[in-house]
Each structure stands twice: as structure tokens, then as C-alpha cells.
Amino acid sequence: MVPGFIRRLADKIPGSGLTIIKVDFLDEQSLGAIPEDIDVAYYLVHSMSSAIGDFEEMEKRSAENFRDRINQTQAKQVIYLSGIINSQDLSKHLSSRKAVEDTLRQGNYQLTTLRAGIIVGSGSASFEIIRDLVEKLPVMIAPRWLDTRSQPIAIRNVIQFLNGVLLREETFDKSFDIGGPEILTYKEMLLRFAKVRKLRRGIFVVPVMTPKLSSYWLYFITSTSYKLAVNLVDSMKVEIVCSGNNLSRLLNIELLSYEDAVRLAFDKIEQHDVLSSWTDAMSGAKLSKGISRLVEIPENGCFKDIRKRTIDNEARVLDRIWSIGGKNGWYYGNWLWEIRGFLD
Q: Is the dihedral of CA 272, 278, 279, 280 positive or negative?
């Protein structure tokens, strides 16, 4: 766990009786801090933001160390949040998720695996990337993997599933795909996101972008790291659609539509009620200035030109500022601003 996240978690639920334990899943000795008298353990560890070539080995070691420690406790069940695996041609990311599941299944407890596709909610890397693209680009020339189908699920529904399978014997030693009620392409997700945000966006899919170019496209335009972009692009080429099961009916969960999930996510963002961010998995130092700067309208990937000047007549300056545009035009590049106005 990252120190910044621990502080926010402790502040969020003071006096709740919750005990916070800090461990390193790559350090077997630190896992001794996990108490023996536990009933259930959730495994939510993910290493895709690490170096491009070694995250599979890191995930395997983490899972082995976790499994060995939980074997020494009284835990009856482990609940693992994984990714949907329904293709013979798996990406490195999904292949690693499957390897972690196989490792965890070797424990002397009951394993329940929930396999999710894209999770829609503040804090999800996929959600933040979609958000960056839609907020920043009125027109997108995008790679062909935008036509790949997926089955996104609201983060609220994911939490309901994670809670619902807790000590449910009918879910022991089983795997379930969990997804929302709609199957959408990435292009459809971007356009529906824009609809919720009341933004007009145009997307043109071209077949000429290589995976490397696609990774740079995400890296330069969105807030993601290049390492994460490479792994995401590798996964986005694979269709992620749920295989049928009755888990939502068994747990009485009402699945939210994609657009409702986006609206709920922005309710959280606007209320500054985001407890965790996907950047928590990268470095606690990134959060030293507070999480609020990570939940505003995206700024990473944007160029800024900031200049300062002392003024002696505030009213006169403000009058000049409010007169910019319209019939008066702009101080530079009027034709560029006219194009921007046309796009808006």
C-alpha cells in the first residue's frame, strides 16, 4: 500500500475500528504482519504500471508470497479481482492475470475469481484515459483498436459483486465474468462519454497506427505513463465480452448502464470524494500535493504558457480581458480561434 492512500483511508473512516497494515508483497518477511485470525482476504494487486518487460514476473511473485502467507492463516476464502479471459490470443496483461489466478488456486482456502473488463469510475486507469481523450480532443484520428468490443462495468457494481460473494459457499472455487448490461466498442464508449459531458466530438479510425504509435498517442495525450500505455494498447486489441452466468441475479445486483456509470463517477469527482487513484499504484510521491489535483479536468499532456506582470489599474485590465474575442478579435492568431470556434 502507498503512504498517501493509507493517510486518505485513515482520514476517511476515523474511529471505525479498522486496522491498517502496510506490507510489501515482494517481501515475504513483511507479509508476516498479516494476522492469522482472518476469515476472508481480497487480492486486488496489479503491477501493469511497472516496467514493460517484468510486470508478469512481479505479479507471479506477489501472488505466490500472498498465497503462502494466507495458507498460514485461518482464512476460508480468497476473492480475486481479475480480467475477462475469453480469447486464445491473450495479451501479456490478461495472460498474467490468468497466471495469478492459477497461482492463487493452489492455496488451502476457497478461491472466488471475479473477472471484469473495463471498470468505469474515478480511479480506474481506463476511465481516466477515456476522460483525457474526450476532454482534450474535439477531433480524434484514432487507431483501429477503437473498434474492439468490450463490456464495461460501473465501479459501484464491481464493489457490489466483491461484497456479494463474501463467504457465499455457492461461489467457492468458481470464476465469474462480471460486466455491465451493454457491449460497446471503445469508440462508442468515447462518444457516449462525450454525450454525458455535453461535448461534441468526432472520431476517425485509421488502420495505419502500429501498436507503438498507438502507445505514444496515449502517452502524449493522456495522463498515463508510457509503460502503462504499451500494456493497455496490447490488451485493447483483444475483445473483452462476458461469458454468461447468473451471478448478478444470485446476488440481486442491478447493473448500471455505461452512461449512468459515467455520471456517477463525475458526481464523486465533483464532490472531491475520490479515495483512491490509479496513480496510487505508481508512486506515493506523486500524491504529495494532494489528490485534488488529480481529479480536476485533465491537465497532464497539455502545454501551458504562464506569464506574470504587475498591474496598477485592476479595473482597466479587467475591461481589456472581458473585451477579448467577439468583434474585437484576439491579440494573435484570429484565424486559429475562428477554427476553434467552428469546432466548438
A: positive
